[in-house]
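User: For this week's homework, look closely at the record that follows, marking any run of repeated tokens, and judge whether sequence predicts the tokens.
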Amino acid sequence: MSFKFFTLFILSFFLLENQHGLVVNSPDSGSTYDQLWKDCQLEKVVSKDIFNIALSGYNKIDKVQKKKIITIIDFTKPSTEKRFFVINLEQKKLIFTSWVAHGKNSGENYAKSFSNQPKSLESSLGFFVTAETYYGKHGYSLRLDGLEKGINDNARKRSIVIHGASYVSQAFIKQHGRLGRSWGCPALPIDLSKEIIGSIANGSCLFIFANNKEYLNTSEFIVKEE
């Protein structure tokens, strides 16, 4: 093997890309994800660890990768902080930041309890694929399909959707000290919901994170340390 050929072989191995142009499965994927996190200027927005988990899961879901968009909801933050982030991975750009509500029975200002059960009125964690839009009782809305069995795969049955709500606003926070709560849906401010839904609908990845031991220990999308 010539030195030139060997060099190209090594270089291609370390810069292995999938057909959509995102670096995956490299021998040093952790540093690759860290660099993308920096390139997207997420240092003071999304935790590096949460972003790495989200991107690792995204890269396991073939059907979402055409969109090159990932949405992260960070339920380690209180409802009074913006914790809904839409990131364009191709442009390496944060395109939306927003407040987002959690389920009524998940907690007050913090979401602490999660469920996959109908009528639980709790939020679900994990990886979802955005589906079709429709007009319902909350106006323009977006259906979600949960990808994790026993964790969020009842999302469609539970009518867990993204929609706008008047209780997701700075005025509501000022009056009540927290956002209003949904029946499990990640509800958004009315003035942003239509634009956000339009940008993420029909096949993008949504990841909802909380520091929940049960989820972190059971999710097949989470890489467990040996």
Summary: The chain has a mean pLDDT of 88. The longest strand covers residues 126-136.
